[in-house]
Amino acid sequence: MEIPVIDFSNLESKKRSETMALLHEACEKWGFFMIENHGIDRELMERVKHLTNQHYEENMKDSFYETKAVKTLENNGFISNKDWESSFFVRHHTSSNINELASLSQDLRETMDAYIDEKIKLAEKLSELMCENLGIEKYRIIEAFSGSKGPSVGTKVAIYPQCPHPELIRGLREHTDAGGIILLLQDDKVPGLEFFKDGKWVKIPPSKNNRIFINTGDQVEILSNGVYKSALHRVMATKDGNRLSIATFYNPAGDAIISPVSKLLLPNHFRFDDYLNLYTKTKFEDKGLRFETMKNMAAGNSHQRVLTTKN
Ligand SMILES: O=C(O)CCC(=O)C(=O)O
Ligand SMILES: [Fe+2]
Question: What is the enclosing helix (H) or strand (E) of 112?
Fold first, then answer.
């Protein structure tokens, strides 16, 4: 199974419709994919990774190996209620906490800020492409996520440290993500991330060619009325070295009210007789039009409206 790779440079070329179709399939059938040629500066990405690794070595490593979970690992069976992960969380939007994270160097703060600005642009671009593919208004996802102050954006900066007993603990236990669009800058050497697809765990290889890994969260599944998926995933602990992961969450605001986009809903709550009446008149028409008419009827509009526009 080849994980879909969406080449953003094709969006400006003759290959646009083919690329859009690939993106749609990735969102529908996989819930995860990679993006290349996304336009984020390679050097900026390398710098974020380098400074984060350095920050871990200087400020996080010692305290991680002091934790009780680490010390008791050998004396336990499988640990099912903890993760082998050392992380911190940066909020960017709607308010930033980066200056409150005392141990971060000025260099890391500035580099992270510049990098996240790029990630936000990429998330918004992606949300627009998803809307286009779903046949809904271009800014529908951004608006749905906005609440009173705009979407909420945060980044989990994590190292999954080298683990002496990877069979006894997960790097991060199985879950789906609560929010919207997740953009992951991951280690270019050490693997560990796995996604569940069609009954099997798919291993996500370390990033090459500056690719960014994307997955969609529960709110995208809900907004799209289940057309797009939030897939189960996990991080395996490993003996092979530290694994870096910088995951940016482009999520709804806390006060955003979420519901499926009405255009994507199937008709519901109608009397079957009413459906049959309409069906008799429109049996040889496209069923999508019939569904729209049933939805309009439920909304109190004339049931003829959609059909008469066609005839
Ligand atoms: O670190 C990773 O690769 C995945 C992180 C993740 O799934 C999460 O934080 O929700
Ligand atoms: Fe996740």
Answer: helix 106-134
CA 239/CA 114 separation, integer angstroms: 33
How many angstroms is it from 235 CA to the middle of ligand 1? 7
Confidence of residue 309 (pLDDT cuts 50, 70, 90): very low
User: To test ligand 1's pocket by mutation, which of 233, 234, 242, 243 has the most ligand atoms within 8 angstroms of CB?
Assistant: 233
Count the alpha carbons within 13 Å of 246 in the hemisphere toward its beta carbon.
25
> Ligand 2 centre from 102 Cα, in Å?
26
Q: Distance of CA 214 to CAs 43, 211, 287, Å?
A: 20, 10, 34
* Six token digits for residue 131: 């809307």
With a Cβ cut-off of 6 Å, ligand 1 is lined by 156, 158, 172, 177, 184, 186, 193, 233, 235, 245, 247
Under 8 Å between Cβ of 253 and 147 = yes
Bridge partners (DSSP) of residue 243 are 160
CA of 37 to the centre of ligand 1 (A): 22
- Quick one: 127 and 236 in the same domain? yes
pLDDT of residue 301: 62
Domain that holds residue 278: 266-310
265 secondary structure, DSSP code: S
Per residue in 245-281, pLDDT (tens digit) is: 999 999 999 999 999 999 999 999 999 999 999 999 9
- What is the number of domains present in the chain? 2
